[in-house]
Protein 1
Amino acid sequence: QERSGRLRRWYELMLDNKEELARIITAENGKPLKEAQGEILYSASFLEWFAEEARRVYGDVIPASAKDRRILVLKQPVGVAAVITPWNFPSAMITRKVGAALAAGCTVVVKPAEDTPLSALALGELANQAGIPAGVYNVIPCSRQQTPAVGEVLCTDPLVAKISFTGSTATGKILLKHAAGTVKRVSMELGGHAPFIVFDSADVDRAVAGALASKYRNSGQTCVCTNRFLVQKGIHDEFVEKFAKAIERELHVGSGFDAKTTQGPLINEKAVEKVERHINDAVSQGASVVTGGKRHSLGKNFFEPTLLSNVTTKMLCTQEETFGPLAPVIKFDTEAEAVAIANAANVGLAGYFYSQDPAQIWRVAEQLEVGMVGVNEGIISSVESPFGGVKQSGLGREGSKYGIDEYLEIKYVCFGGL
């Protein structure tokens, strides 16, 4: 009950300070202020959710086969949890983990991304104001150069019982190796390569609206951003034409503090170079630039929202996660072909598809090898929903009623001699 009350107070303080917290995100991350404000509300909702879940960690009494004993199941906190978070959601990725950990009774050590430490420190100040005891929520910012060493310490120190990481698959594999030495509990939310399938039966206008939201949120820099558009041949040309018009009409590149901006800068020069590399590779193999395609005149980290057609599965942009404002469109013939292309990746975080055929919806939703499916929806994240992937996209789930289980151990007590 006490943990629940402190988490609830932390949530209320986030709402009281939402404008300042959002401005911190825009300043250090670049995302438009409206998106940053949305992130703060989303971020705070995890504290509210887990404040409520803190009082709902139930054990069990199991009927025993022997008359003189009783079987009890207790749930206890795992212990110290090390939380390593990315720059693209510098507030929400913290509260989604920390809310669950504190609700379960764990203490946490947060290592925020080197690009965005201020959001983590601001949350720490509000945690203090909420009455969360010193030493329960700890933040250790560090430089890019020190990040590998700090990550290794967190994963190898025997005092740490649990690792929760959101970031790239490559980094996740390194942390898993480090954590194996002491057999720590591990949660991993790793890279995605989300397919977005538009079938002939789809409502094309709704699919375009969903595509715009799914692809260009945070300039294409979210874990569940669409990375590959697969569009059936019957509506392919109509979709590409309407998508291009929507991009040109509705997306505005600029400073995150400008009210009309929908597309801020990418996080750094390296990110821009990757987008350029993917476009150049695709064009060299026959892809066509429908709109965009180059750096924006505003500055070196700004890039035009880009749409490519005539894309094939041999191109880099359909084999790697771009993490930028690039939408490549592949034309396909049959449902089986689309599912095969979608499932060819070694990762499986989110997947989306648009269809108005009920039988097809059931088939494809069950066949897609991802942890989360959006059917006729381009934005699927919510506090009530289990967030996580399959294959090399990670281990475990965050948020929802399942999220607190990642920070609890199950203990069996055999009570004999009765």
Protein 2
Amino acid sequence: RHLRPVLLADHLAQLLRAQGVSARLVPATAGEGSREVLRQLRVDWPSGSAPGPDAVLALKQALSRCPYAAACEQGPGMASLPEDVICKVHLKSFVEQQGLVGYDPNLDVLLVTEEKLRSLAELQQAVLQCTVSDPAALPGARSPDASRCSVVHVVSCEEEFQQQQMDLLWRILDPGAHTALQKHLVCGPVKVTNPSFPIGADQYFQLRKRQMYEASVMKYGELAQDEAWTEVIDILTVAAIRFEMLSTAHRSQITLDLEDSSISTKGTKSGAFVMYNCARLATLFDTYLRAVEQGTYPPLPPASKLNFSCLREEGEWLLLFNYLLPFPEVLQQAAQLPPPSKGLRITANTEAVCKFLIQLSMDFSSYYNRVHVLGEPFPHLFDQMFARLQLLGAVRDMFHSALATLHLPPLSQI
């Protein structure tokens, strides 16, 4: 459940950066999972320095002046409080007086600890370090010269309540302009079919890696135990997990099937299938370039010199009109955050990139299985070959751009 919001936040940040919007990830204090798993999953997880004592001290001083804060009284017959509790803050009173909408009605009194203040100081630090590249494009920007940024809490549904507490504490202690733009992107639950034991991020990654290795052995035969194959298996595993976690709309529940049969190197709904087709394109162009070096084919002429009327296959125009032309809009729509309203939750269509890549892979695979791009080296066939290479070169670049939003490097071979 912790892995899903982390992968979603990483993907969302990459999509925003692709649009020229500055985006910065801030780790939660708990639940982000093993840093080693995040490294293996190629998550762009920050390793910035912790906030200094001065930042935490400033928040403590703000607490002492806060009308919603009160000292924690302990006495006979009262439940004992943890030693690290500094004070309590009446969140419900703040929500009612400010007229805030969308918060959990059960939010009442928050026991503030040193750890919560450190988390808050880290959020403040991140906002101060975040540059607004195109303020007019950000939700909530009032004018082109606005300098505020939006804060999006990406959180699992199980931890939404705790994150709303942090949101309100931030609003109370630091009533700056940026805190008004806090929104919550909530992930649905992650369930496992027939779980025989509780599974964490580490076990999940290792299980998928073993399954990917065994599926690859079944398809390609016994694999050499070298760095190249290890790297390929690692990337296929990351692709499988990212697509498994991100192909479903973030609001919906994900049900993981951990059986061996659920992982395949060519299952048309999987990240491995996408990587396989990306590698087919790389192999095609490697083969062509080697043939050019050997004098079998001439080099590819500039696009302006090509005769695109040679593209008569329906699959070729399908790749152009269904994928190449709408691709920029797909990227833009995937990370388009709605403008601020009175509501607290927002949605993003981040699953669109995964679905786009899977459908693209299916249609490209169908076309590539029917058509011989590199035909016989006869001059009268070169015009058609060049036009197809130019088209597929654009498809290859589109694969690479879309995979980059998932922190997946293109594979040159499988």
Protein 3
Amino acid sequence: RAAPSPKMMENKVFMSFTFYSTILILKMYVVAIITGQVRLRKKAFANPEDALRNGGLQYYREDPDVERCRRRAHRNDMENIFPFLFLGAIYSLLDPSPAVARIHFFIFCVGRIVHTIAYLLQLKAPTRSVAYSVAQLPCFSMALQILLATTPYW
């Protein structure tokens, strides 16, 4: 097993980014597990072979609760967390202030966690929208800083 690059391990911003990114990936796994549990509880399977294994083809169907987890919450995560992973990695290379970077990563992470909780528990509006919007702020900030840093090279 190759030892981690000492330079990489010394980059406090990148280590902070790695920490929050891992939390977000784990959160996505939790949503996937919850989706599977809701499928089993509601007996709503996306594939005929799964339905047959769990009671019959009548359970090869869609369910609004499963769709809320799988299609909407999980897809929304992919639409937002994947760009964050790119932006955060590049932003980490710009040598930003570790404290400012940590605030960016923390706000995004908390915003996405609140967004998921609001989605899954069907919390009253505008909880989910506010969480979404708050989480977008650090992404726009990082994107702008990346563009400003790379403009001379276009």
Protein 4
Amino acid sequence: LGGPDPLDYVSMYRNLGNPVLNVPEHWHYVSFGLSDLYGDNRVHEFTGTDGPSGFGFELTFRLKRETGESAPPTWPAELMQGLARYVFQSENTFCSGDHVSWHSPLDNSESRIQHMLLTEDPQMQPVQTPFGVVTFLQIVGVCTEELHAAQQWNGQGILELLRTVPVAGGPWLITDMRRGETIFEIDPHLQQERVDKGIETDGSNLSGVSAKCAWDDLSRPPEDDEDSRSICIGTQPRRLSGKDTEQIRETLRRGLEINSKPVLPPINAQRQNGLNHDRAPSRKDSLESESSAAIIPHELIRTRQLESVHLKFNQESGALIPLCLRGRLLHGRHFTYKSITGDTAITFVSTGVEGAFATEEHPYAAHGPWLQILLTEEFVERMLEDLEDLNSPEEFKLPKEYSWPEKKLKVSILPDAVFDNPLH
């Protein structure tokens, strides 16, 4: 019906809970508009009754009702609009087990509940509509420590722990914005006995994030601009004219519009929230490509072996490098950073990953703006030692540089501003 908001409606219900299951009374919010409400292509392309309706899901949220509260607070509706705006703009969808780093109290208060996990709504089952299937994904508010645990291990594991702690969510995962303690403060055994053990045995099922990142090919002298097609898009251009840069961007943009597949091939995963989650993690991971050639023009996808590379991350992205190394590569898996400010992508792979174009002989290789870095287990262990201070962000001063000269690898952690305008 027009207007700037992506969602048409947000319904708000007073839910009496379930005393038998120890579920308290709460407010229940349900979005309308991520699925196809009209079937006439005005918002979503109608694809038939068998597939997903619109994006295939709607959001829900359960908020603990405060004593004496006669009407539901409206801020959860604004939160849903923010998440829906991201989905419409990026066309990334959400999935149960995903996490959303929000970095701010969800209700703009002083609350410790500053991030979100997503799971199936406990009451609302998937429904078949005339325009396709709709599932209902519930937003669950979590503390920073709980988000980090979900990243290091997996979202479903943390959701299960939240269900066992009544004040942290209980069986229906009701968000209490007044909760002042994390589940690990409430029950310290949960961290050691469940999370640490889970990380050790399962690793992390987070296989990719949207990030502020870039990379440079240090093997080419800066004045060598003979082959402009080798430029790493999204990083500092080397004597590329504005017209050349615009042509490359336009070609990539057209490719992205023509092909709805993600730039990086689905890695045993669906794409959501700028993240990839492995659905069935295995020791021997695979990077089987649905051919990035479907999107990146042919002349940009020659595989190039690089002698030396420089990786650049903002602080938030850099803080995930230990997760990438310990939770992914040491378990024979891969991890991808996809730039949110350009077309750049960086994928770390271990020697056990199949289908990678980086090899032990040539550990740095690029397909256009996509860089792959193969790291041996021995080198991963060494990097983890050298990068230990990434786990203490409060003691961090930017910029920070790490270098392994014999491996011809350099990593810089830089202020956000460097990535906000990469062409300057």
